[in-house]
Design goal:
This protein folds into 2 domains: 147 residues, Aspartate Aminotransferase, domain 1 (Alpha-Beta Complex), CATH 3.90.1150; 240 residues, 3-Layer(aba) Sandwich (Aspartate Aminotransferase, domain 2). By secondary structure, the chain is of the alpha/beta class. The chain is globular, with a radius of gyration of 22 Å. Strands 2-8-7-6-5-3-4 form a 7-stranded mixed β-sheet, with helices on both faces. Helix 5 packs parallel to helix 6 and helix 8 packs across helix 11. Strand 12 and strand 13 form a beta hairpin. 43% of the residues lie in helices and 14% in strands. It binds pyridoxal-5'-phosphate. Pyridoxal-5'-phosphate binds next to helix 3.
Length: 402
């Protein structure tokens, strides 16, 4: 049996989601058709939307269904930008945290390069936390702000952001706030009423891949990114994936019902994992915030192992039957340290020596034991394999303070 410790990448489909999807797969109609078959599909779609809305405490018309988290983030970032600048072209500033997922980071960069957005990158502290006071200070500076975007919880180190305080600062300045809630929803309590828009994804909480939603207040000035049949409040045209959405609604409901029991269970399993790693590798360093559900996602463990290459650790653990992640990206064939760890001020070599291990609904003590059982030999072999090398370009950038 393999041990799966990569639930932040995707978590297994829940039985209730599979059942709901199988049931809906036999529905023939297109939810936009007017005949009886179409109306049956439409009823399933609207029931799923109502269930998602009720579970998240929003109204059904605030649920814009998408093909996943990346699409929801793009719709929010670019849609709010175009909506807000159409209202007032002077709104050129975009405030974004440095630790966003690429689904937000890349659209923000794109707006800077192609639309003349003036991007203000919000710093994080050594634990990966945005300072709500910095957000308030930036909002008070001259220059009108089109939107602010800060994720609820980080996908690499699990750090939870002070969203309530950031939402209060944005409300005070009357500027829309987009929050990427893809990792937070289903892991910690999420108040969907706080941000203007909230991106969520089904496959991170036991639903199918390729389904998600942008929860968008009716007043959110969202421009459409896809044009066509005018579905989803005219901002996201395209035939609805009724079976996928039915699976999403079922998974979300069960996940939220189970959250009060599951989150502390995963947090204590994660702490056992970290305790075991500390005993086996006393020089290992835990990255990100420690503490309760308001500080760190309960299933997240992120650790640097000095002297080891993260990719080597991943491959050796894979060969030993344990699935984990490094979180680092490859640029031109050279693995680069993660932008999240660099923003936290972590040394690039140490950043490249890191592993992300994430637990989820199907995790058990046996998964933790499998990792801890394999780790001593994996560490020894990875240390022998050698030290991390960093590309000359990155070394120069770090030297120059870039
Ligand atoms: N945002 C965060 C924080 C994520 O972790 C991910 C997926 O890893 C996404 C967005 C993208 O979601 P999806 O895989 O549904 O496109």
């Amino acid at each position: 049996m393999r041990a799966y410790l990569d639930h932040a990448a995707t978590t297994p489909l829940l039985a209730c989601a599979r059942e709901a999807m199988l049931d809906a797969l036999d529905t023939t109609g297109n939810a936009s058709s007017l005949h009886t078959a179409g109306r049956v599909a439409r009823r399933r779609l609207e029931e799923a939307r109502e269930s998602i809305a009720a579970d998240l405490g929003v109204t059904p018309s605030e649920v814009v269904l998408t093909a996943g988290g990346t699409e929801a983030d793009n719709l929010a970032v670019k849609g709010l930008w175009w909506g807000r600048t159409a209202e007032r072209p002077q709104r050129r500033r975009v405030l974004a945290s440095r630790v966003e997922h690429h689904a937000v980071l890349d659209p923000v960069h794109w707006l800077g390069e192609h639309e003349g957005a003036e991007v203000v990158w919000l710093d994080v502290d050594a634990l990966g936390r945005v300072d709500a006071e910095q957000v308030a200070a930036e909002l008070a500076r001259p220059g009108e702000v089109a939107l602010v975007t800060v994720m609820w919880a980080n996908n690499e180190v699990g750090t939870v952001q002070p969203i309530e305080a950031i939402a209060a600062a944005c409300a005070q300045a009357d500027v829309p706030l987009h929050v990427d809630g893809v990792q937070a929803l289903g892991s910690i309590p999420v108040d969907a009423g706080l941000p203007t828009t909230l991106a969520v994804s089904a496959h991170k909480l036991g639903g199918p891949m390729g389904v998600g939603a942008l929860l968008a207040r009716r007043s959110a000035p969202l421009a459409a990114l896809t044009h066509g049949g005018g579905q989803e409040r005219q901002v996201r045209s395209g035939t609805a994936d009724v079976p996928g959405i039915a699976g999403f609604a079922a998974a979300l409901h069960e996940t939220l019902v189970d959250l009060p029991e599951r989150s502390p269970r995963l947090a204590s399993l994660r702490d056992e994992l970290l305790g075991g790693i500390a005993a086996l590798a006393p020089d290992a360093i835990v990255n990100g915030a420690l503490g309760g559900l308001d500080a760190r996602l309960p299933g997240n463990a992120h650790v640097s192992f000095p002297g080891c290459e993260g990719d080597a650790l991943l491959m050796l653990l894979d060969a030993a039957g344990v699935d984990v992640s490094t979180g680092s990206a490859c640029t031109a064939g050279v693995p680069e340290p993660s932008h999240v760890l660099l923003a936290m001020g972590i040394d690039p070599i140490l950043a490249r020596s890191s592993l992300r291990m994430t637990l989820g609904h199907s995790s058990t003590r046996a998964d933790v034991d499998a990792l801890l059982g394999a780790l001593p030999e994996v560490l020894e072999r990875a240390r022998r394999a050698g030290q991390v090398r960093v590309s000359p370009r990155l070394a120069a950038a770090v030297r120059d303070g870039g």
